[in-house]
Amino acid sequence: MGILVADSCWADTAVLLLTALSLLYWYATNTFDHWKKKGVPEVRNKVPFFGSMLDSVTMKKQFSLHFQELYWGLKGHKFGGIFQMKRPMLVMMDPELIKDVMVKNFANFSDNVAIISSKHDPMFAYNIFSMKGEQWKYARSKLAPAFATGKIRNVFPLIMEICDELKKHLKRRIDSNDCEFKAHDLAAEYTTDVVGSCAFGIRCNSLIDPNNQFRKMGKDLMTPESIFRQLQFMIIFMMPKIAEIFRIKLISQQIEDFFRDLIGKAFAYREKHPEFKRNDFINLLMQLKKLGGLEVDETDKKEINRGLEKEASDKGKIEFNETVLTAQAVGFFIDGFETSSLALAFTLHELAMNPAVQEKLREELKKSFEATDGKIDYDNIRSCTYLDNVLHETLRIYSPAGVLQRECTKRYTIPDTNINLEVGDAVVIPVYPMHHDPTYFPSPEVFDPDRFTEEAKKTRPAFTYLPFGEGPRQCIGFRFAQAQVKAALATIVLNFEVKPSKDTEHPVKFDQTNFLLRAKNGLNLKIAPL
Ligand code: HEM
After folding, report:
1. Which of 97, 220, 226, 420 has its CA 20 to 30 Å from the CA of residue 284?
2. Phi-psi region of 12 (alpha: psi -120 to 50; beta: other; left: phi over 0)
3. Which residues are within 8 A (CB) of 277 and not within 5 positions of it... i.e. 6 or more apart?
4. How far is the CA of 516 from the centre of ligand 1 (A)?
């Protein structure tokens, strides 16, 4: 009798377990027939819960490189399906379709895919990148003037002050025989100081004191060393709903408090001392708070966001209160510091590996700045076409944002098909994979700035090169980014020679644990006097 009872107990437990496992399996895979049902080609390997993302979630492959593999699995199709965990996503493979999504039918795809939507992370929720619909339109139209050419020209002398410090810093290192450096560190110290000065109005001196608090915040934010924080980042980007439930913040409370305090003090000081004038972002934010908008000259007006200013109605109006304004300054830091720093570091690496390119660039810079006695000014630097091509080529090979995403905001039928995308569906633009596709860029791993001459650009389809995105959602800070990276490059190349060191790795090995494309060893290089 006792044995019979025990047997039936085991049987019940086994049935319960099997049912629970079947339910779990169903839950983990119940979206996996989405693309098949729509007749959309898809990548084959799908893993319960992880979808197509197992290798990047487990950090076996760097995110952009993993997407490159998915891209090649869909090559030959105009579009194809993948699964980010359980969420179906449509990868746009055809440049014409990409143009449709980013520009022609922007109204159908006007939002970025939400990473964190809730207000429990206000510093990220009020970043323009996260904002949606009318609210995004309103905020973008108000902030766009801060990044127009005229404003960048005004802030350029502040960038050049940091470049002078960079020059002195490198000279000191050479004088004390300390010529080897990690390009990621040097570039991050420089961009921290530029953003500190141009956005927050403070001198961080990271080049002299790499452990200052501002630099520490940048490291915590962009390259966290703790596995726990890396895991949190992964959850935020891959499983936003779980992040929401557990209230995981992209901008930690400590970082939020630091910036709230910083901005609060800067505002208070300037309100008390109206005679204090500085052409920085804080100054513009204060103007925005006081006047509800920024002064714009006629030239800037033309370039501001392709007519968005006209369209933005008060429907999405938000108050530029202290939280929203602080979020913009923090946004300047998260969106602008690491991306620009990576661009600078990888350009230095490629210049070291390609001495002929470095020499050609030096010749162009010498000629351009002859008239101003070596003084680098904004208009001159913008006219250096080879410098522009060098930076473009770096951003092609090492595009910091390897993949862009858009959310469908209005039903869309894929041209020449009867396949519909519904509101909330996600679309992927495979930037890094296209930049490395030999169909568009022959011998894609070769660093060749001449791919960006006017004639060469005409030989490939539009919308295959997208380091700053495209359309009304294009990177708002691209002019600032280019100004700060080019200023540093010109300063270094005009005064020093960048060389490989005994520890330089080429091709670069990437850090699999980071969403952005970073070198595993930090890019070891050597600086020498000219
Ligand atoms: C080399 C440096 C940079 C790169 C490669 C870069 C790249 C990008 C990319 C690819 C996007 C998405 C565009 C799209 O979806 O079409 C973006 C958006 C954005 N970037 Fe940048 N960025 C850089 C520097 C900066 C800087 C310096 C700032 C600010 C000072 C900035 C602020 C933003 C903002 C606010 C957005 C969101 C725009 C919106 O959704 O309306 N970025 N960036």
Report:
1. 220
2. alpha
3. 283
4. 13
Given this model, what pLDDT does residue 440 score?
A: 98
pLDDT band at 221 (very low <50, low <70, confident <90, very high): confident
User: Which residues 6+ apart lie within 8 Å of 231 measured at CB?
Assistant: none
C-alpha 522/C-alpha 526 separation (Å) is 13
Q: How far is CA 486 from CA 231, 442, 524, in A?
A: 34, 26, 21
Residue nearest to atom 21 of ligand 1 (CA): 475
pLDDT at 229 over 80: no
Distance 147 CA to ligand 1 centre (A): 11
Distance of CA 326 to the CA centre of its chain: 19
391: number of Cβ within 10 Å: 23
CA 95 to CA 185: how far, in whole Å? Answer: 36
Partner residues linked to 427 by β-bridges: 90, 406
The residue whose CA is least distant from atom 17 of ligand 1 is 475
In 3D space, the residue among 426, 394, 434, 407 whose CA is nearest the CA of residue 517 turns out to be: 394
pLDDT band at 6 (very low <50, low <70, confident <90, very high): low
- Give residue-wise pLDDT tens across range 245-295: 888 888 888 889 999 999 999 999 999 998 888 889 999 999 888 888 887
The 10s digit of each residue's pLDDT in 8-24 is: 788 888 888 899 899 98
129 within ligand 1 shell (Cβ under 6 A) = yes
User: Which amino acid, residue 287?
Assistant: Q
472-477: Cβ within 8 A, 24+ apart: 472/106, 472/110, 472/140, 472/305, 472/306, 472/308, 473/102, 473/106, 473/110, 473/112, 473/406, 475/335, 476/128, 476/140, 476/143, 476/144, 476/147, 477/147, 477/332, 477/335, 477/336
The structure tokens listed for 11 are 């049987």
Q: With contact defined as beta carbons under 8 Å apart, do 490 and 376 qualify?
A: yes
Give the DSSP letter string of 287-322: HHHHHSS----HHHHHHGGGGHHHH--GGG-----H
Q: Residue with the nearest Cα to atom 1 of ligand 1?
A: 340
Report yes or no: 426 and 403 within 8 Å, Cβ to Cβ: no
Q: Is the CB of 474 inside a 6 Å radius of any atom of ligand 1?
A: yes
Backbone angles phi, psi at 227, to 5 degrees: -60, -35
Q: What is the mean pLDDT of residues 517-529?
A: 94
pLDDT one-digit tens code per residue, 180-194: 999 999 999 999 999
* 408 annotated among ligand-binding-site residues: no
Task: Phi first, then psi: give them for residue 134, nearest 5 degrees.
Answer: -65, -35
Q: Which amino acid is at 437?
A: D
